[in-house]
Amino acid sequence: MNLRSFVPSRFALSLLVLVMMAVFTAQACGPDFYPDVFILKLRPDHPKEFAAGKLGVLLPTYPRADLTVAFRYLNEGVLTPAEQKAYNPVFAMSDPDLQQSWARDEAGYKQRIEPADSWRLARAKYAAAEKTVEQNRELKVQMPDGSTFAPDYLNCNGDAFLTAEATLASRAQTWGEKSPDLADWLKGQDAVFSNCRGGAEIVPPNAPAGSSALLKEDRAYQAAAAEFYAAQFEIARRAFQTIAQDPGSPWQGVSRYLVARCLIRQAFLSRSDGDWSSMAKFDPALMQQADSLLQSLLKEKLPGISRKAIQDQLDLVRLRTEPTVRLRELSDALAGPRPDLNYNQNLTDLTWYLDMQLDQRAVREDFEAAYRQETQNEGFDKTYAGLAQLRDSSTLVDWLITFQSPATEAKNHAIAEWKSTGKPYWFLAAISKATERDAAAPELVSAAESIPVDSPAWESFTFHRLRLLVALGRNQEARQLLDQTLPQIRKTGHDSSVNAFLGLRMRAAENLREFLSYAPRKILSQTSESQAALDECLDVMKNPQRNYECAKKVSPVQFSADAAGVFNTQAPLIVLVDAANSPTLPDQLRGSIVNMAWVRSVLLNDSASAAKLFPLLPEKLQQQAGSGMGFHALMSLLRNPGLRPYLDPGVQRSYSYDFVESYADNWWCQGWQTNLYGEDPHLVQTPVAFLTPNEINEGQREAKQLMDQKGAAVYLGTLTLDYANAHPEDKDVPESLYLVLRMIRYGCDRWDGASDAQDHANQVTVIRKEAARLLRQRYAASPWTRKAAPYVG
Prior knowledge:
Elements: H1 47-51, H2 64-74, H3 81-85, H4 98-111, H5 115-123, E1 136-138, E2 141-142, E3 148-149, E4 152-154, H6 158-175, H7 180-193, H8 213-229, H9 233-244, H10 252-269, H11 284-298, H12 307-321, H13 323-335, H14 343-358, H15 380-386, H16 388-391, H17 395-404, H18 408-421, H19 424-433, H20 441-448, H21 458-471, H22 475-492, H23 495-507, H24 512-518, E5 520-522, H25 529-540, E6 557-559, H26 561-569, H27 573-580, H28 587-603, H29 607-613, H30 619-625, H31 630-639, H32 672-675, H33 681-684, H34 693-708, H35 712-726, H36 733-746, H37 757-778, H38 783-788
């Protein structure tokens, strides 16, 4: 039966979304790797606390549901305990709590008896067991390119089974458990649910002659429901209209409601243009008929169907027939400050609609074309301008889009709204977007001083106040305030906030010692390929015959992207040498700087720096490198795929420096700077206070020189060939040629798509062929020649 006296589930076809997620890793068939996480970008650290008003540092990358929750508090309201339960955080694939979330969901699912299962248990008391009903129906959609898209939609909702179960209990009491009428009713209901999955339509036959009037009424309703699930909506609608006109039918009231549901489902499924790209299309005329009918039903008191069920379906319809009006209603209810009795559904409706409208466009700050169906010419500014009409629907919608967008006009709009309204939510949007170049920056900094510590957004306002102080060059003021504030931030238990504030303190550091004190931060999730390489190395070393210099334990305190960026692109070798000798850093991090700086000194031919760093190298590297410069230093780079002229964000590849990992994260790529990932690429290039302009210029010059050398395969390969041709008698040349071929086979060649990709590929091919030729022609008897055979190509 499909008695809708229970609160209905939303029509699941509205969720027809063509999800295309481009996943790329080091190899096409490899696992997925993510940057080590220092700041959670898709959810707050403690979701329950967040829902209760402890917002932490609010990020524009949070999902719109999170930001909608925050808006209530920014609008000087609170969420009731019931409203707080409506908030469910989104977990990124790199989120450390994702597995726990899955486990909780699975445990809850196992404990919960689904309506379809409950129906089967109830039915089994009166008849032989039937197979599980498949509730989803497959829908085949012809796409414009001729392909077929075959999504499922929820055809038979849970309340249909609950109603069937309740009706079964009632009819068993009326007719008796062994009565022929009950047996026939069960056969009819089985026929109804057989249409849930699709396939050949099955409509229950008319009730047998001599059956009770109640069975005949039920059978008419069952037949209509079967037509509905079989997607014969015209036939079902006429059948429900007939029942609605029968004053003796117990299904009269609900059938009037189901006439509207036939119109709704037909409106969705009648479209045949193949446009299912982002949001389910619908027939506007049919949807408008459903709107009018539901509006009229709300004015009556129908038996067998709740007013809420009717209102829920009307809300579903109105979000499509008059979205602007409905968005305004949803926003008014969610924004508060008054409580919203329908908060759960309203939050779902608002965020679903905005996600469908916006997720394929350049709206959110971390929008990446690789994961979106973005048109080539649509940027943030153009997108923001094109959303003016949608933003006008309500203040909440305007704020959500503005807060998430990095468009210049979004910043200007936020500042203007703050100045004209003084509202906290516009103040937060304005100060979070402002830079030191904005005329309003000093005023925003001053205004943030008055935010009380007990404000839900105190962490956010204080962070951006400090961020602007540092950017404005007011470092002494920033240092004093940060030193006062950091203990309070640590007490919150928000690790993301702690890391964000430490990043500011690092940038404001007065000297190298201070910088090194605040550069290390706690990793919240170790999900990088460097971590995977270390794990793989340790796993291989379970074989006692395999031994590598791999760290047995890695501290969770490492360099995040902004700290690594300073070492990689701003600090010159002279500063790196000082850092490598500083006792301020933990030994593991200091060792990573030693390795990276020594590689730089070799590649930059800086013998003075190399000599200072050489005694600090691991003993194995000292033995391999000889004097620390020249050909043997070059060979040590070839031997150790985890050595590179830069620091990784998070776990360092140098923690397993002599191990060849399986997914090509070995040596370094062409354009390595652009391949480094981090939470905030904008911070990487931001100057730090303790470096002088001359030091920054020198650091940038050295970084550019290293970048111009291209990747390891070309640079080290070319140097090795040059040396081999100049010193053919050197006994180490055959091994060096073998190492070049091994490097090309397992090395980092992530230059696909670059403008000079083909030129790079051609250079690598020439080097590989020349190294193989020299081995065959000059060193045919060498064991290295035989060992190189698999890499010759």
